[in-house]
Amino acid sequence: MRMMVAGGGTGGHVFPGIALAEEVVTRHPANDVVFVGTARGLEASVVPAAGFPIELIEVKGLKGKGIAGALLNLLLLPRAFLQSWRILRRWRPDVVVGVGGYASGPVVLTAWAMRIPTAVQEQNAIAGLTNRLLGRVVKAAFTAFPEAARHFAARKVYQLGNPIRRRLMENYMRPESAHGQPRLLVFGGSQGAHALNMRVIEALPHLADLRERIQITHQTGARDREYVEKGYRACGFTPDVREFIDDMSAAYAGCDLVVCRAGATTLAELTVCKKPSILVPFPAAADNHQVKNARSLVDAGAAVMIEERDLTGEVLAREIREILDAPERRERMARAAGRLGSPQAAKEIADVCMELVRRRWGSPFGQAREPGQKPARPPDPAS
User: Fold this and answer.
1) What does the alpha-carbon distance between residue 298 and residue 279 come to, in Å, rounded to a whole number?
2) Poorest-confidence range of 140-149, 171-180, 290-299?
3) Is 124 annotated to bind ligand?
4) Is 12 labelled a binding residue?
5) CATH says 168-340 is which class?
């Protein structure tokens, strides 16, 4: 089976696509996955780094661009559809999955017109504009939150959760790493989050009495690293401040509490890794979807939410202290998070995709390929 994953822009769209691709290629040596995105999106760098091929199209978003900007970007669509048609003709995928972001629109619509089975994967509680539009034509809509189902026909909805990267799945099987002191993990996404970084520094004086009893690992992004490290030292903390955390699996396994944003991929990781959290939704997220995402964990008892307009150093310090000082509460939050986890999401989405392929092409392996044609796959780590 050959799958095409279309879309991207942010890690919240790209990483679930990579997680699904990892599942597909491990099922059969002839399976492969190709991505389609834009040169400006995160996919242009992280997809090749994951070992998958990527094709690029020229397209820009329409929402929030103003009338003039939207009209200019509309003029790019005919070219984007032509590029999509050429890519689809060249790769001949058996199924196309849109993961959100404006790059997915032309590819999924063109695939539908070519009678290739199509699906969308919606990561958030409020479906994005592109996925809402594509939902009218695709065969399946994979959702992670019950609230997202209202954007799609009921017969198309599969609420299976968000796929997470294979390395992070280790947390589902591995035990907690042993440590004596409470450990706090802070991050704002792959690029960091400036406002969150600043509020944590403001919280440190209110936690000064804990500096000998707490360990904090803080991912800041490149912009704030030096300033944040100085802030920790000024308050007497031994800093573990990093621009980027390469091994998030180990970071999750080694912490007792997480302070972070409320992107869908982050929440999927928190629930599979069974981590209590303090969530600070990104206020500029489209349709305020991070607040809706966070509420699902708050309502289940797995997290505390502080909206950024209410976030001060004192408020954040109080919440951190109350949770870290209450082991039984942390345990209850961890159990609640685990009940929301979907460790099988990638597998179950791949199962549905294979059924779509079987219905269209008569075999779960898809269309016949030319003799000698090698599948496009990431290199085998064992080789």
Assistant:
1) 9
2) 171-180
3) yes
4) yes
5) alpha beta
